[in-house]
Specification:
With about 240 residues, this protein is an alpha/beta fold. It folds into 2 domains: about 15-40 and about 120-235, HAD superfamily/HAD-like (Rossmann fold, 3-Layer(aba) Sandwich), CATH 3.40.50.1000; about 45-115. The protein has helices at about 45-55, 60-70, 75-90, 95-115, 120-130, 145-155, 170-180, 195-205; strands at about 15, 20-25, 30-35, 135-145, 160-165, 190, 205-210, 225, 235. A 6-stranded parallel sheet has the order 5-4-3-6-7-8, with helices on both faces. α1 (about 45-55) runs antiparallel to α2, α3 crosses α4 and α7 packs parallel to α8 (about 195-205). The radius of gyration is 18 Å and the shape is globular.
C-alpha cells in the first residue's frame, strides 16, 4: 500500500542550526496536539497500566498486550481491550465488560498522568500560540471526560479552544475542527507521536510534525518532519 502523502505546505518552515524547527506563524491557522507523549510524558504510564490490567492472565499474555499497545499507539483503550480479550486471550467480552475494564484502566492512570512531567517546551509553545492568537486543540484517544478532567487538574484547559477525546476519532476531530472554524487544512498543523496521528493528519489534509521519544524508533514514513521535544518547535 502506498504511503499517505503529507501536505507540501512546509515551504515557509525552516530548520535552524540548533535543530529547531521554525514555523512561520503567518502561514498557520491552528495547531492540533495529541496528548500522551506530545504534551505530557505519559506513554509509559499507559503501558504499565495495560500490563497491570492483564497480569492475571500470565506473563506471556502481558508481553503480547504490551507489544501490541506499543505498536498501536494512538488507538483507544476500548478497541485495545476488546482486541486483547478476543484475539490474545481467545475469550471475547461484551461492550459492558469492555467499559468496566476501561474504567479500571482509567482509575489506574488518571492521577499518574495528572502528576506526569510535561514534554519539554509544551508550556512555552502553548503560550506562544496564545500570544499570537493561534488557537490550539487536543485530539486524543483518551476518553473525552477523563481528558477534560486531566487538563483541568493540570491547569492546562485555558490553552485550548476545544478538546476531543474518545469516542471521537482523531481523523474526525481534525475534520470537525477544520469544518467548524473554516480553516484551510494546509494551514493546520497536527503534532503527534504515533502512526495513528500521522494518518489522521494526512487524512484531513493537515501538516504534520512527529514527536520522537528518545531511544525509540520512528513510526512515521522516512520523510516525516520530526522533533525530539516541543522545544524543537518555534513560531516565528
Amino acid at each position: 500500500m502506498a504511503e499517505p502523502k503529507q501536505s507540501s505546505a512546509f515551504n515557509r518552515t525552516t530548520m535552524t542550526d540548533n535543530a529547531q524547527l521554525e514555523i512561520a506563524s503567518e502561514d498557520l491557522d491552528a495547531v492540533i496536539f495529541d496528548f500522551d507523549g506530545v504534551l505530557v510524558e505519559s506513554t509509559s504510564i499507559k503501558t504499565d497500566a495495560f500490563a497491570k490490567l492483564f497480569e492475571s492472565y500470565g506473563s506471556e499474555i502481558v508481553s503480547r498486550v504490551v507489544r501490541h499497545h506499543l505498536e498501536n499507539s494512538g488507538v483507544s483503550r476500548y478497541e485495545k481491550i476488546a482486541h486483547y480479550h478476543a484475539m490474545l486471550i481467545g475469550s471475547p467480552i461484551t461492550s459492558d465488560e469492555v467499559n468496566a475494564e476501561a474504567d479500571r484502566f482509567g482509575a489506574i492512570v488518571e492521577d499518574l498522568v495528572v502528576g506526569a512531567p510535561e514534554v519539554a517546551g509544551a508550556t512555552s509553545l502553548l503560550s506562544s500560540l496564545r500570544n499570537q492568537a493561534k488557537p490550539a486543540f487536543v485530539a486524543s484517544a483518551t476518553p473525552h471526560a477523563e481528558l477534560v478532567r486531566i487538563l483541568e487538574r493540570r491547569g492546562m484547559s485555558d490553552h485550548f479552544k476545544d478538546v476531543y477525546g474518545s469516542p471521537t476519532t482523531k481523523l474526525n476531530a481534525a475534520g470537525e475542527i477544520i469544518s467548524r472554524y473554516d480553516f484551510s487544512p494546509e494551514r493546520v498543523l497536527f503534532i503527534g507521536d504515533a502512526r495513528a496521528d500521522f494518518e489522521a493528519a494526512t487524512g484531513a489534509g493537515c501538516r504534520f510534525v512527529g514527536r520522537l521519544i528518545n531511544g525509540e524508533g520512528s513510526p512515521f514514513p522516512a520523510e516525516t518532519v520530526t522533533v525530539a521535544s516541543l522545544e524543537g518547535l518555534v513560531l516565528v
